[in-house]
Design brief:
The complex is a heterotrimer of chains A (439), B (328) and C (160). Chain A is an alpha+beta fold. Chain A has two domains: 196 residues, Aldehyde Oxidoreductase, domain 3, CATH 3.90.1170; 170 residues, 2-Layer Sandwich (Aldehyde Oxidoreductase, domain 4), CATH 3.30.365. Chain A is built from twelve helices and 15 strands. Chain B has 328 residues and is α+β, with helices and mostly antiparallel strands. In chain B, the strands form four sheets. Chain B has a four-stranded mixed sheet with strand order 1-9-10-13. In chain B, strands 4-3-2-8 form a four-stranded mixed sheet. In chain B, α4 packs across α6. Chain C has 160 residues and is of the alpha+beta class. Chain C has two domains: 75 residues, Beta-grasp domain (Ubiquitin-like (UB roll)), CATH 3.10.20; 70 residues, DNA polymerase, domain 1, CATH 1.10.150.120. Chain C has a five-stranded mixed sheet with strand order 2-1-5-3-4, with helices on one face. In chain C, α2 packs across α5. Classes of the chains: A alpha+beta (439), B alpha+beta (328), C alpha+beta (160). Chains B and C meet through α4 of B and α4 and α5 of C. The complex binds FE2/S2 (inorganic) cluster (2 copies). The site of one FE2/S2 (inorganic) cluster has 11 residues of chain C, from loops.
Chain lengths: 439, 328, 160
């Protein structure tokens, strides 16, 4: 099945613009007479906002206006899956992490905006900061979100508090207890992963412009899903979708970080308010503090094995640090769990996963979406077991590897395109791996 | 002392949103009189090559040089929803939507072409943007045909939606019939050297075999393997946003380190191409899978080199030295 | 304050504020947005330009310090009608993903090849060690620099 263009190294259609510097990333666009936007963010990771005084800041020369929740009391919360993130924190309500926005500063120059930002006065009533999900799971831990409702369906541990559990998921395939009984030995370990920033080299940035003639707010900013960002902005501002138009620019990297709303909402508000073009560019620091992270996962893995090197049971418990807002957490943490055995045949699987609110920067999407963290656990387990068995790790993988007809921890039967064994053969060939591999 | 080690990891990744989420992509293909083929998709190119992949797929189906293809519609008001560029889904989802839309257009080329030539479809040849009924006969170009079709008040244009079904897993057991549309598999072997005095790790070689179904653009697939693996090595060895009591203490690129060009290994990679998946031309997604193997392969290589097992990431020199100390 | 400098061969006289960075001058005052900002702290290399034959992070240089200087940015290297061999090689070798690091990467590469047209792999890595790329894993960037050196040596293009 030879093809003419598919399977060929056709040169990237956008590369020429990028090597000449002509490609327009969000911060490269040019608008006449635009205003600069900066965001005043939380001053404490978990606190009630008691007072927010922008009067002195407004007097800074060059400041056009400063917007707070008072100016827009009807905004709805936003978020990718669960709408739990406020656009601006209201006096009397809580800030939940250092990225929460308190005020939008709009000024003629960047210097004026920054100067005004420093003059905003914030008074808070500090609350206990929960940086560790283990603490957030204790019965006496303060509740981070009081208004989300009980999303936890099936928490089975009576010693633990449910108040900060954002979402739980579970796996039950086969008979795990029996599987462990059939095992000749059991390997049990706990693994821990870290907060990671996707760190695209272009920080979040964009422009917006309000078109009075048709009442449409145009936003030029990167998004991994234009129509989702559009819908999220529109619902937060109580606008019909058609009134929010998002125009993609060149995207300077994303890796999951540009799924959530970032500059879009604040730009939209500032543009409509001033009826002038507005620009907002995050600093690296702001980007790291305010936008999503790869979730730290705590993974307890327990694996049952026979002496001839087959897997009889696999059990995991996963706790994901969701941070202050839901973002992609309701999908990420359990996607990790759904991949808990790796690509290996195991008839009996049990798993529990919990995404837990804390006062850290929120976890969201990053390349691999929970499964990257889980692979560290399952492939460590596999290696540990191979050494215990004194078996070639390649052979051990091979004899347990998925094939057509295997079933995943979800019980999904794999019908086609399962070439794992060939990847083991090829990678070991390339590496001139010592030792033979056989069924 | 420098000690060498070798580690392996095999991984899988179920791609697409899955779990019964209504995951789909809408695309439109149009041949215009002004010698362009417009492929309309709202899908985002993050650098991996989405626009190029869509161009190749449309060019292949429509049998025309890719230079005629123009991707348009990177705007909520100019294209319908293509779903996100995430979940390793665009080649599979938007690729299939573009392929289907292009096939629809090809059907129209045959339909209107056969009217023009007064013949039936099997007698027509379509090649390099032209169609004809026999080698010596008159040829007309797509652009001429577009003009003729326009005179009939019609267009050489079609829209398609690719909308495969998945099922929500049972809430209590996670069991379900089809949770993800398909899975990508990869195995990597990694050679490293650990300096037992400093705890520093140097990654020497990475050998990769990636089950891609079919590579629409092999160079770009290798770009994903290299880029994904190096990003994965960042996770394995250095990256850590430290948040203490809610405060990030290293919110800059001096204290949050990512791999530099000095940190990269040699790569040797093979693509397993069985043309057996449900994506366009048998392809499947590769973006995310390429990052997944690095941290366990590295950790397993560390064990092979110095006999210590580090169970928390990143595997820093400090952790290596502490573990060596404990082992003594 | 008034300064004058040569940018991509063109003499420019500008009025700048004392705190204006060379990067702002290039991007905002001259509108040459090919030079990027990724960190503003000298950490990423996206803002790399050549100043008086030296590679600098333009976010760390004050515009005032560039008074009288000769500056070369990505726009001065080659346009679409006449790509520089480095630009050509970056395209051909698939070294461009999101592209945000690429102008800086190419300027560092240019300086490297100006000084050493036969760079070893180690030379290339040293020369580009201040330029962070998050997408490519650098492998194809190394390939592209090698390929550009080859192109330049075989004399396909002048104006290097
Ligand atoms: S922007 Fe100058 S080094 Fe990053
Ligand atoms: S190509 Fe994206 S940062 Fe280098």
């Amino acid at each position: 099945m030879s093809k003419k263009y598919v399977g060929k190294d056709v040169l990237k259609v956008d590369a020429q613009d990028k090597v000449t510097g002509e490609a327009q990333y969000p911060s490269d666009l040019k608008f006449e007479d635009y205003l600069h936007v900066k965001i005043k963010r939380a001053t404490y990771p978990h606190a009630i906002l008691r007072d927010l005084d922008v009067s002195k800041a407004k007097q800074v020369e060059g400041v056009v206006d400063i917007l707070t929740e008072k100016d827009y009391p009807d905004l709805n919360k936003f978020g990718l899956i669960i709408k739990d993130q406020p656009v601006l924190i209201k006096v009397g309500e809580k800030m939940r992490f250092m990225g929460d926005a308190l005020a939008i500063i709009i000024a003629e120059t960047e210097e004026a905006a920054l100067k005004a930002r420093d003059k905003i006065e914030v008074e808070v009533e500090k609350l206990e900061v929960m940086s560790n999900p283990q603490r957030a799971l204790e019965k006496d831990a303060p509740t981070i979100h009081n208004d989300i409702g009980d999303l936890c369906t099936n928490y089975i541990d009576p010693d633990v508090g449910k108040q900060n559990i954002l979402m739980d998921h579970h796996l039950e395939k086969g008979d795990v207890d029996k599987g462990f009984e059939e095992a000749d030995f059991i390997v049990e370990n706990e693994y821990q992963t870290q907060h990671i920033d996707q760190l695209p080299i272009q920080n979040e940035a964009g422009y917006a412009l309000y078109d009075e003639s048709n009442d449409v707010i145009k936003i030029w900013a990167a998004s991994q899903w234009l129509h989702d960002t559009q819908a999220d902005v529109a619902q937060a501002m109580n606008l019909p979708k058609e009134k929010v138009r998002i125009i993609q620019t060149a995207i300077g990297g994303a890796f999951g970080k540009k799924e959530d709303v970032s500059v879009h909402l604040h730009l939209a508000l500032a543009a409509r308010h001033t009826k002038r073009p507005v620009k907002l560019v995050y600093t690296r620091e702001e980007s790291m503090i305010s936008q999503s992270k790869r979730h730290p996962l705590t993974i307890k893995a327990k694996t049952g094995v026979t002496n001839d090197g087959y897997l009889t049971a696999w059990e995991v418990k996963v706790i994901g640090d969701a941070g202050a807002y839901a973002s992609s957490s309701p999908a990420v943490v359990h996607k990790g769990m759904y991949h808990c055995t790796g690509p290996y045949n195991v008839q009996n699987v049990r798993g529990d996963s919990y995404a837990v609110y804390t006062n850290n920067t929120y976890g969201g999407a990053m390349r691999g979406f929970g499964t990257t963290q889980m692979a560290f656990a399952y492939e460590s387990q596999i290696d540990i077991i191979a050494h215990k068995l004194d078996m070639d790790p390649a052979q051990f993988r091979y004899q347990n590897a998925y094939d057509i007809g295997s079933t995943t921890p979800n019980g999904q039967k794999l019908g086609k395109s399962v070439n794992l064994k060939r990847t083991i053969e090829s990678a070991t060939d390339l590496a001139q791996w010592e030792g033979e591999i056989s069924e | 002392m420098k000690k060498q080690g070798r580690g392996m990891a095999s991984i899988m990744f179920g791609f697409g949103y899955g779990e019964g989420f209504p995951d789909h992509s809408i695309a439109e293909v149009e041949i215009t009189k002004d010698k362009r083929i417009k492929v309309r998709t709202a899908g985002a190119d993050l650098g991996q090559g989405f626009l190029t992949t869509m161009t190749q797929i449309a060019a292949e189906v429509l049998k025309i040089d890719p230079s005629y293809i123009e991707i348009v519609g990177q705007d909520t008001h100019k294209a319908k929803n293509s779903g996100s560029t995430s979940a390793t889904r665009q080649t599979f989802f938007s690729g299939n939507a573009v392929r289907e839309a292009a096939e629809e257009v090809m059907g129209k080329i045959y339909h209107y072409g056969s009217l023009y030539f007064n013949s039936n479809h099997p007698e027509l040849t379509v090649k390099d943007g032209e169609l004809y009924a026999c080698d010596e006969c008159e040829k007309i170009t797509y652009w001429e045909l577009a003009e003729i079709v326009e005179q009939r008040g019609k267009e050489l244009k079609a829209e398609a939606t690719f909308f495969p079904k998945t099922y929500a897993p049972d809430r209590k057991t996670g069991q379900g019939e089809k949770i993800y549309v398909a899975y990508t598999f990869m195995t990597q072997v990694m050679d490293i050297e650990v300096d037992t005095d400093t705890g520093l790790i140097e990654v020497m070689n990475v050998y990769t075999a990636l089950d891609v179904g079919r590579a629409i653009n092999p160079q770009n697939v290798h770009g994903q393997i290299e880029g994904g693996t190096v990003q994965g090595l960042g996770m394995a060895m250095m990256e850590d946003q430290v948040i203490e009591e809610g405060i990030t203490i290293n919110a800059d690129m001096t204290n949050y380190l990512v791999p530099s060009i000095q940190d990269i290994p040699n790569f040797e990679s093979t693509l397993i191409e069985n043309n057996d998946s449900g994506g366009p031309f048998g392809s499947k997604g590769v973006g995310e899978p390429t990052i997944i193997g690095a941290s366990p392969a590295l950790s397993n290589a560390v064990y092979d080199a110095i006999g210590v097992r580090i169970k928390s990431l990143p595997i820093t020199p400090e952790k290596i030295l502490n573990a060596l100390e404990e082992k003594k | 304050m008034k300064i004058s400098l040569t940018v991509n061969g063109e003499k420019r006289a500008l009025d700048v504020k004392p705190e204006t960075r060379l990067l702002d001058l290039i991007r905002d005052d001259l509108g040459l947005t090919g030079t990027k900002e990724g960190c503003g702290k000298g950490e990423c290399g996206a803002c790399t330009v050549i100043m008086n034959n030296k590679v600098v992070a333009s976010c760390l240089v004050l515009a005032a310090q560039a008074d009288g200087a000769e500056i070369k940015t990505i726009e001065g290297l080659g346009g679409k009608d006449k790509l520089h061999p480095l630009q050509q090689a970056f395209i051909e070798k698939g070294a461009v993903q999101c592209g945000f690091c690429i102008p800086g990467m190419i300027m560092s590469s240019k300086k490297l090849l100006d000084e050493n047209i036969n760079p070893s792999e180690e030379d290339i890595k040293r020369g580009l060690s201040g330029n962070i790329c998050r997408c490519t894993g650098y492998v194809k960037i190394v390939d592209a620099v090698k390929e550009a050196a080859h192109k330049i040596k075989s004399g396909g293009e002048e104006n290097v």
